[in-house]
Amino acid sequence: MFKDGEKAVWVSGLGVISCVGDSSAALWSAIVEDQSGIQNGIGPVKTTDSQISGGKYSRARSFAFKAARQALDLAQIENLVSSDGLILASTTGKIDCWDKELIEFLQNRITSADFAREFAGQSLGQMLDDLRIAIGHNGPSAMVASACGAATQAIALGAMWIRQGRVKRCLVGGSEALCDLTVEGFKSLKLLSDQPAQPFDRDRAGINLSEGAGFLVLESERNSRSIAKVSGYGLRTDGFHMTGPHPEGRGAQAAMRLALLRAGLAPGEISWVHAHGTGSDQNDLAECAALQKVFSANMPPVTSTKRIHGHALGASGVIESVICIEALRRQMIVKTGGLENPDSRISIHHSRETRPLKLTHIMKNTLGFGGINASLIFSQPDKGAT
Amino acid sequence: MIFSKRLGVLGYGFGFPEDLARLVGNPDFRKATPKMQLASLAMGMAIESLAQSKADQAFSIRDDVGFIFNSGYGELEATIDFLKSLSETGVARPLLFQNSLHNSTMGFCAIRFGLTGAAITLNHRVFGGEHALQIAQSLIQDKECRIAIVTTVETVPDQIRLLGGFGVEGATTLIVADSDWCRRLGFSPFACVSAVECRETPVSAENMAAYAFKSLYEFDAVRRIALEIRDGAFQPKESIIEKPYGGSAMILTA
């Protein structure tokens, strides 16, 4: 429903692998039933699928392939063609291919030739190409590595490519695998909780890292498989701090406002906000300050679902977009799990129960390291211009 | 990709490894990685060059300035230091972790230059500059930004450099905008880019093994365009950049 009358962008397929299951139905069910996939503070994907748990590819590439295939199947697309795009997002999705080998090489336990073989695929762009080879793609592509905002940016870029006529269909997604770098790194920043996260709660203790993948199929034409519409997006940066958001969520405010502007919507027309809501003090306070500024008296219910599926970093934006689309399909919102005593410094409309609600337009927000902010608006397929 | 909005190049700049000595002792760069330092040098030079194209005023609205950053290896120096330190001492060092993320240079430069528009980090060793220019074009066409800073960087730590006879390192920045918009506002672009095409066939990891420890920055489209402008060799033409890993990129300039 882009207000300038440009092309609409339709969502016709989705797929997801997460720590609570390998389908969007399993993810939705876990959220509704408040069944967290977090164990000892992290959310590993539990699978006996040998395609994922072992083999020549990184776990993230294997998650990506499986989630991408789900999305393509739902969209009834057997093969991608050269007019189709593919945009992938990740942050550390390739590191499990070479991090152990690096240490062995530095300690002279393997040769440079052995190390070279593993290190050749170090670039995240190689994961993109591996995925493209696996699904037979040779059209336009991009590999986005903008930390936690990567997948949300990927969806926005896919929507841009469709609106601009660069591609007719675009497979957009993100994939992430747990690794020592992120687990130990976030621990060193004292951001990890060893219990399931409690976003927006007075007693929250930090975030839960997780892994998984999500994909959407975006199309330029509405068809019988169209399940939602991308109505707006906004990308902005704080330019403030390397790891923390601006305290007033300045960039997040700008991203949300830009998404609303593109969608031609007033704040009061948003039915539900799916927040980034990591459960860290800095994120929750900044994101909610931004929501308060943008929505003010028109605040819709706001939910974070990270207690259930954790924070899958570069894949989180698309995994949570899948939740938004499932909510649109089911006309139901879910609660923020673990929210018992809302932080008094936060004034948003907390979603405290899972319940039916007429949903027309949903906003999905992401904030990330480097000051990245991205907002998306998903709408019912029959709302707005076609 | 033939650009429906032709890009005018309003600024260009470089960061060369030999220039890094200028930053020694500068407190602003005390915690910066080589990529952050080189990208800052290239971006600073490119921003200064905006005066020559009479576009320096347009740069003042920072919400309108997009930033696309690509590196092939990402923040490898900090990543290796982090993993090495963790392995040897069991201690995770937070500064190394935050600097190890692929978009840390983007975050550093956004703070340094006060950028608040759309900022996207890419991670392509194959056709890196081409992808970055294509994303810039998309953001500009979509009015997500008016002006885009496109920066490509390549560096590696010594452990890798010694293995492969590494090759060219450095950073290049192009500052681009819709050429029609440039004309309306009276700017004088150094050059215009009307298409960037690259072979879209994916390259397998097996085919990239020979380049595991070699820089591909020498073949970067952003670097090539900036060098031609600097050397006065820029002419309207179709440039073909042959890639060592296979395929080629075509850049149509006017």
Share of residues in strands of chain A: 15-25%
Strand order of the largest sheet of chain A: 4-3-5-7-1-8-15-14-9-10-12
What is the CA-based Rg of chain B, rounded?
A: 18 Å
**Termini gap of chain B:** 15 Å
User: Greatest interface and its residue counts?
Assistant: A-B, 70 and 69 residues
Distance between the termini of chain A: 7 Å
Strand content of chain B: 15-25%
Largest sheet of chain B: 8 strands, mixed
Output the number of helix runs of chain B: 9
Total helices of chain A: the number is 12
Radius of gyration of chain A: 20 Å
In terms of quaternary structure, what is this? Answer: heterodimer
**Class of secondary structure makeup of chain A:** alpha/beta
The major beta sheet of chain A can be summarized as: 11 strands, mixed
Write the element-wise H/E pattern of chain B from the N-terminal end onward.
EHEHHHEHEHEHEHHEE
What fraction, in percent, of the residue positions of chain B are helical?
25-40%
Unreliable stretches of chain A (pLDDT < 50, length at least 5) are none
Commentary on this structure:
The complex is a heterodimer of chains A (386) and B (254). Chain A is an alpha/beta fold and 386 residues long. Helix content of chain A is 33%, strand content 20%. In chain A, β14 and β15 form a beta hairpin. Chain A is globular, with a radius of gyration of 20 Å. The mean pLDDT of chain A is 94. Chain B has 254 residues and is of the alpha+beta class. Helices cover 35% and strands 24% of the residues of chain B. An eight-stranded mixed beta sheet of chain B has the order 3-2-4-5-1-6-8-7, with helices on both faces. In chain B, a hairpin with a 5-residue loop joins β7 and β8. The longest helix of chain B is centred in the N-terminal third of the chain and has 16 residues, at 34-49. Chain B starts with a strand and ends with a strand. Chains A and B meet through α4, α5, α6, β4 and α7 of A and α2, α3, α4, β3 and α5 of B.
